[in-house]
Amino acid sequence: MSEPAAERGGLPEDVLVRVRGLCKVYGNNEVLRGVDMDLHRGEVIVIFGRSGSGKSTLLRCVNFLEDPSEGTIEIAGMTLEGGHRTRAKRERIRRVRLYAGMVFQQFNLFPHMTAVQNVMAGPLALGKQDRRLQEELTGTSMDKDAVRKRAVDLLAEVGLADKTDEHPIRLSGGQQQRVAIARALAMQPEVMLFDEPTSALDPELTGEVLAVMKRLAVDRQMPMLVVTHEMGFAREVAHRMAFFHEGKILEQGPPSELVSNPQNPETKKFLDAVL
Ligand SMILES: Nc1ncnc2c1ncn2[C@@H]1O[C@H](COP(=O)(O)OP(=O)(O)OP(=O)(O)O)[C@@H](O)[C@H]1O
Ligand SMILES: [Mg+2]
Hints:
By secondary structure, this protein is an alpha/beta fold. It has one domain: P-loop containing nucleotide triphosphate hydrolases (Rossmann fold, 3-Layer(aba) Sandwich), CATH 3.40.50.300. The chain has ten helices and ten strands. The protein has helices at residues 55-62, 87-99, 115-125, 128-138, 144-157, 173-185, 203-218, 231-237, 255-260, 265-274; strands at 15-26, 29-40, 44-49, 70-75, 78-81, 100-103, 191-195, 224-227, 240-245, 248-253. The strands form two sheets. Strands 6-7-8-3-9-10 form a six-stranded mixed sheet, sandwiched between helices. It has a four-stranded antiparallel sheet with strand order 2-1-4-5, with helices on one face. Residues 55-56, 195-196 line the site of magnesium ion.
């Protein structure tokens, strides 16, 4: 989607998502304590850090599964902040959800639907208004036949051309996660958010999922925020790695620098433990 400059709310052309001063508090638990982050066109950012450091919360705030307590998120040409969900804001959030696809640790496919039905489910569930918006934004038809054709193509893209009519229960974890990636892509997102997409998988199945993500990054130049501790993937695919610590980005940089020469003792300690 190439929206007119005025619609982009003043963001530089190559910045797709800008997070500023993001804070999130649950009760008296300060989970995010002022996160600043830009995701650029074609960029892959790997976010890593200890359990409970706020990585999932950051991703969930970016697509407004959670409302920020403070700070702003500029995405899809709009600026959003926390606070009351007015009608206008809910409208904007719907737009954000079309813009940013998300893949979770638990794939959560619909068990009663086949792979292709799972991939078609999102687009077909859109209300009339969103469907029209989607057609306008992507220039593609949202008719059932067109949606099905794209779903079949997406399953082929993630290496599951022969599994379109299987139910999730008959698929391996890695295959299920690839269906989940195809399902997110079916909404034709401009950016992808991955929250530990391989950590529920047996080690021998993570490779096939990471390979799909790598192709997405390289062939499609899909911008993505990826929470993962797969350091091999990070080194090979990420443009930038960000170490999360106690609700903040403590250190970030290109993988080659960050991994081999971390500046902060916390980063070093963590890397020593995972490598
Ligand atoms: N809905 C919620 N209500 C209250 N507290 C929450 C909620 N979601 C997360 N938290 C708290 O926020 C903190 C950060 O959680 P978050 O899931 O973002 O961490 P994480 O870095 O993703 O950890 P992990 O590596 O274990 O997935 C934790 O202390 C968690 O208990
Ligand atoms: Mg998490």
